[in-house]
Amino acid sequence: MGEPFEIYPYSIERLTSILVEKSISNTDIIENKLHLLYFQEYFQHLETKTILVENDYIDKDFLEDYASYYVRCFSEYKRKCTRLHFFKKEFDLEDFNSLLNKKDQTLSEKLQQDYLGFIVVKPLPLTIIGRTCLTTYPQEEGEERYFPITRKYDVHLFGLHLLVDSLGFQEQDNVVAACATSTLWSVFHQTGILFHHSILSPVEITKAATKQLPIETRTFPNKGLSSEQMAQAIRGVSLEPLLVEVKNDEYYLKSYLYAYLRSGIPVIFGIELFGIRDNRYKLIGRHAAAVAGYRLHGKRTTGVVEKDVQLVSSKISKIYVHDDQVGPFSRMVFDSPKIEVTENGEEKNLVALSTSWKTGEYPIGSVKAVPKILLIPMYHKIRISFDVIHKTIRVFNSILEELKENIAALPYERFCWDIYLTDVNKLKSEILDSKALKGNYYRGILLGNMPRFIWRATAIQGDSPVIDLLFDATDIEQGRYFILPIEYKKSFSDLLRWLFKEDFFGKIPRNNPAWEIIHWFRKNKERNTVS
């Protein structure tokens, strides 16, 4: 029996040799993996100094896959994996043995501070990258990176308790999974905590997604899942799939991504990959990835004006996705003009994102991702979708713009709207921390009854919120889903009450999306709160 652990100074050469040794792969296969190139850059960003190798590690997900498929193979595959731990701190065998022998307890705290996460190495010939939880990119000056789709992972290492904020990632295993299965697995790692459902292993996801396969199709080995099968797997954990067709519209793509990601709900990103050859783009294939974060470019309050309304979400310049063919938190960048492709003999200009992909004859930088669909796993009580709230804000914003045109002295400047889904606990925590609200009004909001899930649309001027419009996400579209405003600037709220007086503004039809907001200000003559 070998040593239970090994410790090495980090280098990409050392990582390569460990991956070869601990799997049943070979150097050529490992060195040609895009994952290795990605890890080289990623660990450089994280300033990695040390690798601790935990031998004979039992991984639950691989054990499920092993029991369902590999144990029945003629070749004997091992059921135990290896787990690699990464640290920003330099230490060696002597240091770690001092910790285990209770001679240096200060090292325990230092290791937690400098812990970067782990990679499970599976004992397979090709798809060796198992459950991986690495910390996110560090913040840098001038960057606004957000990773709302992360959770705390407890890591127990020979009695040492470590924590890492991450989202589970793994390479696809074509035998028991596909890219869509790996994507769903990552997504369920977040929604399982958020919505309290069981987190399925890859083989369980494949079984749930393929219950209704045609008879001529095999479940294992699995070559891919359709959007319908992904939706079936989402229903298998008692969530409802929300399908959004992007329709070659960058504005809606960014606004939908932001609205749900900021709430902590992961999004499955369905794309088509195009590679350029001879100055023409050719379809390589279809793919799915789990969106886990985004970067905002420039000031949050200066979004691009499109669809008659200015949104914070329009400032998204990058998204970070769990792409099973690349790595965790890999970048996709909105830096490209539309690409020209031929579909069914017709020339089309399509929205595209730059990727870190390489495949065959297409080197890194030559492969673009064309968005096709978003698939969002929703709690069944969230009934109002983003497009309903967006339409309401567009109409309300256009009313303000029209009033400004007709009343030259109106003290109103164009808003930048921040629209996203939240829940009542997050909302009240943010209100409690807000310096813009105080007194009985502030107290009344904290004590008021509200639904669990809420759409929040914040109107921003400069760097300050002016008003929040809150909507009941659990209501129905035909219902009265507007709850109330949160009035940060009383002068603006009083202006709305004056503008929306019936004798001034006139009648507005009940079917107008902004009717409930206007009616609320007519009904509530003074600033008050939900009861």
Sum this structure up briefly.
This protein has 531 residues and is of the alpha+beta class. It is built from 16 helices and 23 strands.
Walk me through this protein's architecture.
- With 531 residues, the protein is an alpha+beta fold.
- The protein is built from 16 helices and 23 strands.
- The strands form six sheets. Strands 6, 9, 10, 11, 14, 15, 18 and 19 form an eight-stranded antiparallel sheet that branches. A five-stranded antiparallel sheet has the order 1-2-3-4-5.
- It is globular.
Shape: globular
Uncertain segments of ≥5 residues (pLDDT<50)?
Answer: 215-222
Distance between the termini: 67 Å
Determine the number of helices (DSSP H or I, runs of at least 4 residues): 16
Q: Quote the beta fraction.
A: 25-35%
Question: What tags apply to this protein structure?
Answer:
531 residues; Cathepsin B, Chain A; 5-stranded antiparallel sheet; 16 helices
Topology:
Layout: E1 5-9, H1 12-22, H2 27-31, H3 34-45, E2 50-57, H4 60-68, E3 81-87, H5 93-100, H6 106-113, E4 115-121, E5 129-134, E6 145-146, E7 151-157, E8 160-166, H7 179-195, H8 202-209, H9 227-235, E9 240-245, H10 250-261, E10 267-277, E11 280-296, E12 305-306, E13 309-310, E14 316-323, E15 327-333, E16 339-343, E17 346-350, E18 353-354, E19 367-378, H11 386-406, E20 416-423, H12 424-433, H13 439-447, E21 453-461, E22 464-472, E23 482-487, H14 490-499, H15 502-505, H16 515-523
Antiparallel strand pairs: 1-2, 2-3, 3-4, 4-5, 6-11, 7-8, 9-19, 10-11, 10-19, 11-14, 12-13, 14-15, 16-17, 18-19, 20-21, 21-22, 22-23
Helix pairs in contact: 7-8, 8-9
